[in-house]
Every structure is written in C-alpha cells, then in structure tokens.
Amino acid sequence: MTKKFTRREFIKDAVKKGTAIAIVPGIFSSVTKAEHAIPSTEGLKEAMFYQTLDGGVMIECMLEPRGCIVNNWERGYCGAKENRDGKYYSLVYSNPCTVYVEPIERENFYHILPGQQFLGIGTAGCNLECKFCETWHISQVRPEETETQNLTPEDAINLSREKDCRIIAFTYNEPVICYEYTLEIAKLARKAGIKTICHTAGYIYPEPLKALMENMDAVNVDLKGFSEDYYEEICGIEMSQVLESLKLINRLSAEREKPLQLEITNLVVPGKNDSPEELSRMTAWIRENLGADIPLHFSRFFPNYQLMDILATPLETLEKARDIALSNGLNFVYLGNIPGHKYSSTYCPNCGTMLIDRSNSEVTRYNLDMKGKCSKCSYSITGIWY
Predict the structure, then answer these.
(1) φ, ψ of residue 208 in degrees (nearest 5)
(2) I want to staple 70 with a disulfide (CB 3.0 to 4.6 A). Which of 19, 25, 83, 366 is the partner?
(3) What per-residue confidence (pLDDT) applies to 27?
(4) Among residues 304, 280, 249, which one has the least CA distance to residue 15?
(5) Could you tell me the sign of the dihedral formed by the alpha carbons of 383, 214, 162, 23, in that order?
(6) Taking the domains of the chain in order of start, what are their residue ranges?
C-alpha cells in the first residue's frame, strides 16, 4: 500500500533521497529518475511567443526576458521547449509531473474561496534558478527526468469536476514554462465555471502576461526580495521585470469588471533578504504602487536545495516583518509556514474583528457576508468570497 505524506513531509523525504517526483491526485509518491522518450513532433504542441532567426533555423523565445536564442534541435534555458527545424515546441503540454488536490490556503491564496480545495497542476522546468526551491526535483530538471502523466486540458477539467474542485491552480513549478498548457486549461475552465489561479515569479513579458491574466481569476506573485543583488545571486534573474509584472497585473485588475485577485508572497531568508531596511522598502513600494489592500504573505524559510546551511527563519523576524508592513499602510499581512499562528487569520482592518480563522490550519470561522463585507462594521474586504 502506498504511504501518504503531508506536503512538507514529502518534500523533506524527497530531499533526503535525491529523487525526482511524480504526484497523482490524492497521493504523494517519490520515484527515482527515469528516462522517458519525448514524443515525436507530430504529438507536440507548437509554442506561442517566439520568432525565427537566421533564415528560419534558429529560434528566439519572446515569452520571457531571458530571450533564449535556440539552435536547431536544442532547447531553451527552461529545458521544456525545443527547436525542431525552425518550429518551437512545448515538451510539457498535456504532460504534467505533478497533479494534486490541496486546500486553497496551501498556495497562499487567502482572499479567494477560503476552505475550498483546488486541483494543482505542474510540469518540469523553470526559468529561474532559486537556491531555496522546495520543488527543485521538477523545476530544475528536464521533462524526461520526471515521471509524467498524460492529462489533456479536457482531462484536467473533467478531473477537477470528479474531485469536486471549484478551482484549478497552476503551481509547483513556474506556470510560464507550461504557458500554452496553462492558457488552454484556463480558457476551458472559464467556460466550465471553474476558477483558475496561478502562483508565479512574474518573470514574463507584458504581452503574454496580459493574455494569461485575461483568463485567470487570481494570481500570487513571489516577490523574492527587494534588491537586484538578491535576485541575481539567489534567483538568477532581474528584479525590475518582476516589479513591472506586478504593476501590470494590478492595472489589468482595475480595468476588469470582475477584478483579478492579486496576492504576494515573500519568502524571508535569514541573512539574505530579511533586513528591516529591505522589508520597509518592499512594503512601501507595494503600498505606493499596488495599494493597501494587496494581501502580503511573509513565508518562513526552511533549509532546502542549495541553502541547506541556513537555519529556518526565526519567528520574531517574521513578526517584525509584519509590523513593518502594517506601519507602511498594508491592510492584510499574513505569516506562512507556521501552522496555527494567529497571523494566518484574516482581520478586519477597520474594526479588528477576526473575519476568517485559520489558526487551526483550516477555516473555522467566517465572518463575512455574501458581498465580502465585515459582519460587524460592513467594511468591504477585497477578494473572491463566494
């Protein structure tokens, strides 16, 4: 009988074994790396957002700022797309290596359908190289180094219904890597009345970001830190493009009839991005550029991947970060990766009433009316509540 793991237990177990992972609905299972043949060109999906160079032999990726120049029969940095005779193909379309049902709160979405389950989908590959990555077993490998499933966009919709999930989440790796797959599922989900969300680093060009956000109901952007040096050293990308993505998402939300719910996660790494000065600059920037009501999650770091020599984030550091954010005018500031902490709950910024109690790692109190207003003072709380 297959042993079941919590997500945290699974990740720790996989780190010890040095394995790649395959996740199927309802069960975490670790498997050794296996070689899997990439399908013939006939069975692949042509990528979006690229252009041909050198008479049609070379490819330039126009999806994200790395702008990979890819020779014939070679792949871009992400390892998930390949140039085959002048056409760029996704190697992960309909081939996720991670499919799992989890509570919405696990993905740091606190202002969308609290207590609901989502169907999470992820593939191999990433366009970042974060040294603290929890899921490096899939994000830092190629598709043939993982155990994959065949799950078409239509299958994903059917599976979501079968599992009674009102939400499909694109997570576990960077959704930009499986852009075509993510976009097609999101379009079908909207027609089926299923909400879609994604957890992203925001390292993507404006045009594809706009097209993706048009079909999303909520997005959580990882704002890794607030210095270019940190982004370059720890994540291997430029911070400036992430900030531009955040501003674009916020602007797109304001233009929609039904706003796009934006939340932000900041993993606080001791000695790397946890100085009061950096946290103050970051939270002041969020307030000034995105507004006071953007939920911000300060997440606790645990030793992982290439940062095994750094201890877990002290609780007092996270609580100080929250104090800084509140002092800079943010209304909804949460602490994550600390089960049972009182600041995983939602409080009314006007009267202080606990609106959503998550102190027992599940929603046990819900003091919002059908319009998302505080049941005590009628203050309107940003989010998707029903």
Answers:
(1) -65, -30
(2) 83
(3) 29
(4) 304
(5) negative
(6) 44-90, 345-386
The structure's pTM equals 0.90
Q: How far is the C-alpha of 226 from the C-alpha of 274, rounded, in Å? A: 10
Residues 333, 296: contact at Cβ < 8 Å?
yes
C-alpha–C-alpha distance, residues 101 and 120, integer Å: 6
Tally of helices (H runs) and strands (E runs) in the chain: 9, 19
Token reading at 58 = 């070379």
pLDDT digits (tens, 9 = 90+) for 40-62: 777 799 999 999 998 889 999 99
Distance CA(282)–CA(369), nearest Å, equals 32
Segment 230-236 shows an average pLDDT of 98
Instruction: Count CB-CB contacts under 10 A for residue 309.
Output: 6
Measure the CA–CA gap between 321 and 298, rounded to whole angstroms.
Answer: 7
For residue 139, the tally of other CB atoms under 10 A from its CB is 25
Closest CA to 176 of 68, 39, 103, 300: 68
Per-residue tokens: 321: 């970060």
Residue whose token pair is 């291997």: 236
Spatial separation of the C-alpha atoms in residues 21 and 10, rounded to whole Å: 10
Q: List the end-to-end C-alpha distance of the chain, in Å, as a whole number.
A: 38
Provide the CA 226 distance to its chain's centre, in angstroms. 18
Instruction: Tell me the pLDDT of the chain averaged across its residues.
Output: 90
H or E stretch covering 10: helix 7-17
